[in-house]
Amino acid sequence: MKRYKVIYIFILALTVLVACGNSTNTANQPEEVDTDIKAPEFNGDSAFAYVKAQCDFGPRVPNSTAHTQCGDWLVAKFKEFGATVTEQKATLRGWDGTALNMRNIVASYKPEARKRVIICSHWDSRPWADNDPDEKNHHTPIDGADDGASGVGIMVELARQLQLQETEVGIDLICFDLEDYGTPQWYNGKHDENSWCLGSQYWAHSPHTEGYNARFGILLDMVGNANARFYKEYFSQKMASGIVSKVWKKAHKLGVGAYFPKSEGGAITDDHLPINNVARIPCIDIIPQYPTCEQSSFGPIWHTVNDNISNIDKSTLKVVGQVLMEVIYNEK
Question: Reading across the β-sheet that carries 170-176, which strands appear in turn?
Fold first, then answer.
């Protein structure tokens, strides 16, 4: 995953507690009617298998054989599950001037529908374990089981479910490329925040469909660790607070609120920023933060060689996947 810039925002709030009697009689007030439909059951085992399948190709580093093979596999799986697949291919320059073969993959359901929702994640993996405790690993590519493959694994399982039971709105599952080729920590020169998220920057300027628009987007990043806690990311709150509220309410209603604390998180550079700032589509980031972790605020395996399949938890995949299912199947 990218070298995130995290800014923890501490807000001093004055809470006034009014302990006075309330004479309003609520006994005869009508009960709130729950109009949500029950979404299909998300399969965490299936999502886990799709995460593992990506990792089995090896690190999905741009310009590598593993990257090409995994991309071909994703296209084939989405087509197998009934999606209309569009690929965006271009040659972009990385922070070091390297020519990178970009490949964004878009799997669309009900492509004719004007009302649309985006679910997205990045599918490339970090070429360098530049946050590894062992300096000898700093130039080693990572598997990116959590950082990339977990979000895509959930999306492939969503595709399987969407083939079985369609939603009322159109759904676009977007696999962004070149998210994690940002400037490594060991580089002594200038660190450019724009060196991250190259695939989503490209898509935001040139969507896969001319004149494309969507109601909102939900970005998944590092959504497979057992200890993941998804705080309300700062830019998501600032740019798409209504979508944050929608998703977090679903999580708490499902009884998995422990994974989705109502607390504010930090500000993170991720693929949701070009979608918000350039494409002008409100998009949130479901991403864990670990405020007490000394090694990284993104957890101990972030950008290390330990980001492998052994650290992926089926229960976390199921929680995130089910929350997404409840959101998209209840969108009218």
Answer: 84-93, 99-109, 170-176, 116-122, 216-220, 283-286
Question: pLDDT tens for residues 255-264?
Answer: 999 999 999 9
CA–CA separation, 138 vs 33, rounded Å? 55
What's the gap between Cα 289 and its chain centre?
Answer: 13
Q: Token digits for 26?
A: 């609520």
Q: Would you tell me how many other CB atoms lie within 10 Å of the CB of residue 295?
A: 15
List all residues 6 or more positions away from 307 whose beta carbon is below 8 Å from its beta carbon.
Answer: 126, 142, 143, 144, 145, 146, 147, 301
For residue 176, CA distances in Å to 122, 125, 221 come to 4, 11, 11
Structure tokens at 91: 């040659």
- 3-state DSSP percent of the chain in helix, strand and coil, to 5: 35, 15, 50
Torsion of Cα atoms, 43 then 49 then 53 then 59, to 10°: 90
Contacts 24+ apart (CB under 8 A), 162-166: 162/81, 162/82, 162/83, 162/109, 163/81, 163/82, 163/83, 164/40, 165/40, 165/329, 166/109, 166/110
Tokens, residue 41:
């059951």
pLDDT tens per residue, range 79-127 = 999 999 999 999 999 999 999 999 999 999 999 999 999 999 999 999 9
Query: Position of tokens 């969108």?
Result: 331
Q: From CA 220, how far away is CA 228, in angstroms rounded?
A: 12
Amino acid (1-letter code) at residue 326: E
